[in-house]
Amino acid sequence: MSLAFCVVHAAPDLLERPAHMRTSERSIASVFLDVGRVGERLVAVGERGMILWSDDDGKSWQQAAVPVSVTLTGVAFIDQDNGWAIGHSGVLLQSDDQGLTWNKRLDGAQVADLAADEAKAPGADPQLMVNAERLIADGPDKPFLSIHFSDEGHGVVAGAYGLFIETRDAGQSWQSCQRSIDNPYGLHFYSIADLNGDIWISGEQGSLFLSSDKGHSYREVATPYVGTYFGIVGVGSRLVAYGMRGNAYWTDDKGETWQKSHIPGDNTLTAGLVTRNGEIVLVDDGGSVYISIDDGRRFVRASMPKMGPLTDIVELADGAFLFAGARGLSRARIAMPTTESKS
C-alpha cells in the first residue's frame, strides 16, 4: 500500500530498465509497500522495482526478475500461478510463475489511451475527455495505488487522480471505468477491499465508495471524517475505515451510521488485517501496532519495539507477523491483549 507519492515525469528508462539485482541483506532492507500471498509463498513489492519472494514464512527471501525500476505499490494473485503488481508511472506487471518473473502489461501512456477510449463512448461526460487529454499530455507520471481481484476474472486497479481500470477476463484486457464512480474532482483512491461480496474503495477527503453489484456501479458513502482513509478491514458485518492522524470509524450498517474507534495515538494508520482469531490489527507510520479484541470499538497499543514507518502487515502460519515498511521486511510476534486489558 502506497501512502505517499511524488508525481513526477518518470524518466522513460525507468519503465524499460530492469530492477537492479541486490544481495539478500540489501534487498530486505529496501522500502516495501505491500505483501501478497500465492499458496504458501509470500511476495513483497517496493521501491525501484523490487519484488522479493519467500517460501519459508519470511525467514529468507529471494529477488524476482522485474522489467522496470519504478516504485511498486501493490500485488495480488488470482490463482496458484498468476499474479499482478502495480506501481508508479501507471505500471501494471503480470507473473504466471508464482511471482518469480514478471512482464509489463501496461504503463501510464497506455492507461491514458484507455481513459480516452472510455471518454469516446456514447453519452460519456465531456469531462472524461478533458481528463484523458490531460493524462496524455502529462505522460506516464500517475501511480496506481491499490489492486484487488474479487474472483479469477474480475480485477480492479485504482490510483492517484481517480485512475480506475478493470478487467473481467482475468487480465487479458483492461478498460478504464471512471464512469462507474462519481469522482468529479479526481480524488486519489488508496485502497480496495472486498467485504462480504461488497467492493469498497477508500481515498482522500473522507471519500468512501461502495459497490454491491460486483463493481458495475458505485455509490458514495458519507462518513464523519473529511481526511484521507488509507484502508478498510471487516469482521462479520462490522467495517472499520482508518486513515490519517489516528482516525478510524466503524459501522455495522454499510455506512448508514458511524462510530469513532478509540485509538491511543495520532499517527497515520497505514494498514490493517483481521487475524485468524478475529482480532483487528492496525499499524501506523510511526511504527506502532494497535489491536482491537472488540471488533474495532477500542484499540490498545501492542507492547513491542517500534519498527519505523509501516506500510503492511501479514499474519504468518506460525503465529508471527510479517511487517513491511520504510526499513524493509521483518518478522515479529504480537502479544494479544486479553479481555482484562481492554481498559
What does this structure look like?
By secondary structure, the chain is mainly beta. The chain has a domain at 231-343: 6 Propeller (Neuraminidase), CATH 2.120.10. 9% of the residues lie in helices and 37% in strands. The chain is built from 3 helices and 27 strands. It has helices at 24-28, 108-119, 126-138, and strands at residues 32-38, 41-46, 51-54, 62-63, 72-77, 83-87, 91-95, 103-106, 144-149, 155-159, 164-167, 175-176, 189-195, 198-203, 208-211, 219-220, 229-235, 238-243, 248-251, 259-260, 269-274, 280-284, 289-292, 300-301, 310-315, 321-325, 328-332. The strands form 7 sheets. Strands 1-2-3-4 form a 4-stranded antiparallel beta sheet. α2 packs antiparallel against α3.
